[in-house]
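#onboarding

Welcome to the new folks! Below is a worked example of what a typical request in this channel looks like: someone posts a single protein sequence, and someone else replies with the predicted structure as tokens. Don't worry about understanding the tokens yet, we'll cover that in week two.

Example request:
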Amino acid sequence: MSAPRAVTAARDRLRPHALFLIALAGAIALRWTTLRAYPSGLWFTGDSYFYIGHALNPRPSPTRTTGYSMLLWLLRPAHSLYLVVFLQHVMGIAVAVMLYALVRRARLPGWAAVLTALPVLFDGYQIELEHLFMSEALFTFLLTAGMTVLLWRPLGPDRARPGWRQAVAAGALLSAATIVRSAGAPLVPVLLLGLLLWRGGWRTAVAFGTAAAVPLLSYALWFQQVNGTFALTSSDGIFLWGRTANWAACSKIRPPAHERDLCLPKRVQAQRIPPGRLDWISTIPPRKRWRTVATPEANKTLRDFAIRAILAQPRAYAGDVARGIGYTFENRRRPYPNDTTEMLYHFPDRPQIFPGGRGWSGHGGTALGDILTYTDDGTPSRVNLPEAKRMIAYQKHVYLPGPVLGVIFVVGAFAVLRRGRTALLAYGAAVTLLVFPIASCDFDYRYVMPVLPFACLAAALAFAPRNGDGPSGAGAVYAWARSSRRAWARSSRWWGSPGSRRRGTGPASGP
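Example response:
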């Protein structure tokens, strides 16, 4: 093929995606500005230092899974913090591309697919989270890649169930995501159940479950060799204790003698300290009792206490979880769990200050010492003010409001009713990723980042045709509204139950 023909063919292939390419160029420009503004990346106090330390000395940690540290370890020969955040922005762009591809695969028009991907491409808080040395960007990328593989065939014209090869790839990607962040663990049974809903889907489910189990079991065995217990972490007990501590009453729980000292004093409960802060206070009962709250013994005792509290006071637990979910959909951002933590999700106007406390590499030294060992960039926190001011102003005005995300979730619920299994997988992933961290630990704004692609995908599927002959986009919206109106008319009081005779208009018409 001659060069002019190749150019013409490429232009013809790209023309249907012109709108998305324009949006993609704008999103890339924003991320390029962010890289120029903060060439050394941004740091989240505590967690970022943990990941760098475990990249210098790879090992499973009792407090959190270390998959993100494995990525940093792979990138360590480059000695470049810039490379790390650059790749995280590439992952963010890739998530939007996969989301766009899935929506187009569902036979929705280009403008609808672009609209679906806009929050991932342009939300200022999403871009800031991609620039943090945190696991969220990698976690979201792996989850989205797994879901893309899993839904590619079901969203196609023949609506075939996923094959075993797709199931194996999706299971491996999901297990990798779980090793990056343990919040991915409940997605394994959720998606497994979704696959079983297909006729003959047990083969696909077995392939998916096996591919997901092998890496997770391998990591758990490694964890057992190092920390003495078969698990991914041994800190779920302290986090669940923190979730229940503010309302757990020993008079209602009636715990065994060895757990009674874990009840929080009433004067502390009255302060309603968010669990995300409470867990780390040195004077709380668990930290007074155990030098390390992530030992197997402490973890088991704390988990047992928290489960007793939930079973004895289910309404208090449900209220706490519902309150945390509600924070997601508010129109304003709370200083939660405190203003210091929430400010870390905003672009700063000055370099960050590093603590003088110990590092996490296990070799002694400080967190700053670990960072300087990892990188040759010299200064681990730099701010170029002209570009930084642009991103600060951008983030202040361009983000997805909580109520809009709430509408997206409502539309996604309708998609489950309309599209069935495919929408259920996407919506189930969104709900699980939103609720599980809140139910097992606490609400945090960064936990919303992995939720967004799946919630947007589920909402888009509400307007996709059910088969290759149906309308799409605005046509699907009109068809859905028309069918809903007809269904309401058939089942209304005027018409009675579906199929019944029309009621009379006289006063003798019965109720």
